[in-house]
């Protein structure tokens, strides 16, 4: 037989039941209480490329604003390699607790699923999209001195030289599968020229070799290329977007300058969390990013670099990712680009 409860035990049990009833009545749960304390330690924003590129620039523009908003440090962590797959996979396999985020790109979440035979993560199932941060065109650039020496002043000049000198031009990119890489591959397939692709671990180191004259051409994201275009170190030929950029209104599109109707290969960047991250945390981050992108100094700085700030909802970003995966699959196939 089970002995009868003592008065003290009965009293304790009644108190526990009363507390449980109070918590239930207030609509709380254990997970909600835990979420309410977030963030109680620094949050990491993984950038899957080396410092200096547009992905890195956007993360570093947002991190101070998020730090102020949440009272905890938002620290940028560069994890470069494999066209962004190393950093993206790290986040995909991290706990969904709101302390590890990814600054994803059109490469990691739009292109790579079609480009890589064995992708270590699922760009849809393994992530909770937070918000699109910005969209940017790419820009076709050469080292200015190199372009002058070769007599290349326009897209048409470039195509003519490349056809007359197959294999003599090297094309730098921020990594296999990035929009910078695929814009170049699309250009090669549409023009019938051959260039050797040299992938780097991010736009920063690729740009360093461009500026040193070690690389011939690059289809870089406009924000990271803009300072070098403005300084005269780089010769800009055209933007890869469907329409001209307001940041460089006199610069034609590749479609215009190269006679390549319908040519378009733009980039986008957005924050994502691991799958299973509580919706309350996702929504709080989205709201603060949207607010930060409306700060005049940040908005003006990004716009001047050619970026179009967004800050849309998690649902809208989820829809964009699905559409971009479908969009890039035939482009990758047509370009012949493939990474095993």
Description:
With 340 residues, this protein is of the alpha/beta class. 47% of the residues lie in helices and 18% in strands. It contains 14 helices and 11 strands. It has helices at 7-25, 30-36, 54-70, 85-92, 106-115, 144-150, 155-164, 179-191, 203-211, 222-231, 254-258, 279-292, 296-304, 314-335, and strands spanning 43-47, 74-78, 100-105, 127-136, 138-143, 170-173, 196-199, 217-221, 234-239, 267-274, 308-309. Strands 2-1-3-10-4-11 form a 6-stranded mixed β-sheet, with helices on both faces. It has a 5-stranded mixed β-sheet with strand order 7-6-8-5-9. Helix 8 (179-191) links the parallel strand 6 and strand 7 (196-199). Helix 3 crosses helix 12 (279-292), helix 5 (106-115) crosses helix 14 (314-335) and helix 8 (179-191) packs parallel to helix 14 (314-335). It is globular and about 65 Å long. 48% of the residues are buried. Residues 14-31 have low confidence and may be disordered.
Summary, kept brief:
This protein has 340 residues and is an alpha/beta fold.
- Annotation field: number of helices: 14
The major pleated sheet works out as: 6 strands, mixed
Computed CA radius of gyration, to the nearest angstrom: 24 Å
The span between the termini is: 68 Å
Order of helices and strands: HHEHEHEHEEHHEHEHEHEHEHHEH
Number of strands: 11
Residue ranges: pLDDT <50 for 5 or more in a row? 14-31
Q: For the largest beta sheet, what order do the strands appear in spatially?
A: 2-1-3-10-4-11
Helix-and-strand structural type: alpha/beta
Molecular shape: globular
Estimate the mean pLDDT confidence: 90
Residues in helix, %? 40-55%
Oligomer: single chain
Which range does the strand content fall in? 15-25%
